[in-house]
Design goal:
single chain; about 350 residues; mainly beta; Methylamine Dehydrogenase, Chain H; about 40% strand
């Protein structure tokens, strides 16, 4: 993310935390809610990285918190808490991988124990040498165990051997900015794996008039296509179930757009006032039922938007109210859909 946005978000998060210090953390509901509750608008649970509150939490369609973990310890350099910027399930569905964008590290956590089982990076220390990161974003573990992340300021997407912690492959050239994917990247802020083993990279595009791109990389590492977006600050593009690309515009008013591989806008959402207006949304996903799930960061909510009517049909959080309590969020930065078919055990030991 842009440094000015990071600073604003950090200040907003600290102010919100100070204002709600006495509020209780999210309460647990039943560890295993019904798989298909009546009126379920989702068909699964939502994993949310609540960055401002320092929480990872899982919410079911009934808006119950079925799992949560507070991240409250210090790094060696005195940075208070490991704030999870983005979080995703690992392929074994027993761990969560998350990036600490401001703390220069990636972690893997056990769902059952809440303990960190793997870390990469030097907390609080920026760098580009082996073992170092500079503003990591959107970390994933691939089916073979490899960990990949967008290392924004280092202008690269890297693939890390989980055992040796060596970089075994990368897109982009370390420290060199440009738009010539996959050789040169311009501030990659997202690199989502695709179902075929490829990748969708989002380039913010610093220094190019705020032009943002969406780069589809094949499983063999070749560029399939690169889309120039209509956005000021494209964030976290990912491939839809029908092979198109959905991406959000991280600003106010924010936007959601779906592009064809040829760059045609197929669907868009950008209210400029009212309850539907977005304030720095960070990611959106097309759900299996076709509706749109979006993380509306600075409005302190996640919500589901009806694809046809563009009406809000489900939400968690309270518009513009940052709190660390059940039913509230505090600058969430990522929301991930967890299908019921994954049968994730959210019970803690």
């Amino acid at each position: 993310m842009k440094p000015i946005d990071l600073a604003c978000r950090a200040m907003a998060g600290l102010a919100a935390l100070a204002a709600v210090a006495a509020i209780a953390p999210p309460a647990h509901a039943a560890a295993n809610p019904p798989s298909n509750p009546a009126g379920d608008p989702l068909g699964g649970n939502l994993l949310i990285a609540d960055r401002g509150g320092g929480y990872l939490l899982v919410v079911n369609p009934a808006k119950q918190v079925v799992w949560s973990q507070h991240l409250t310890w210090k790094s060696p350099t005195g940075i208070h808490s490991k704030w999870a910027d983005d979080a995703f399930l690992t392929p074994d569905h027993r761990h969560i991988i998350f990036n600490e964008e401001d703390n220069q590290a990636i972690d893997i956590m056990s769902i059952a124990t809440g303990q960190i089982t793997w870390t990469y990076g030097h907390p609080g220390v920026k760098g580009s040498a082996p073992g170092y990161l500079n503003t990591p974003d959107d970390a994933f573990q691939l089916p073979d165990g490899t960990v990949e992340t967008s290392d924004i300021v280092n202008q690269r997407v890297i693939f890390i051997n989980p055992k040796t912690k060596q970089i075994i492959r990368q897109y982009g050239t370390t420290g060199k900015r440009g738009h010539q994917p996959p050789t040169l990247l311009n501030a990659p802020d997202g690199a989502y794996p695709t179902p075929d083993g490829g990748m969708l990279i989002t380039e913010i595009g610093w220094g190019h008039g705020d032009t943002s791109w969406l780069d589809r990389i094949s499983p063999t590492g070749k560029l399939d296509y690169s889309i120039t977006t209509n956005m000021t600050y494209a964030s976290d593009g990912n491939v839809t179930p029908h092979g198109n690309v959905i991406v959000v515009d991280y600003q106010k008013p924010g936007a959601i757009e779906i592009y064809s591989p040829q760059g045609k806008v197929l669907w868009n959402y950008r209210p400029t006032s009212g309850i539907g207006e977005l304030n720095h949304p960070s990611n959106a996903i097309v759900l299996p039922n076709g509706n749109i799930l979006v993380c509306d960061d600075w409005n302190d909510r996640v919500m589901v938007i009806n694809r046809q009517t563009k009406a809000i049909m489900w939400n968690y959080g309270h518009l513009g109210v940052a709190r660390n309590a059940a039913g509230y969020l505090n600058i969430p930065d990522e929301v991930v859909f967890v299908p019921n078919s994954w049968n994730v055990n959210w019970a803690k030991k």
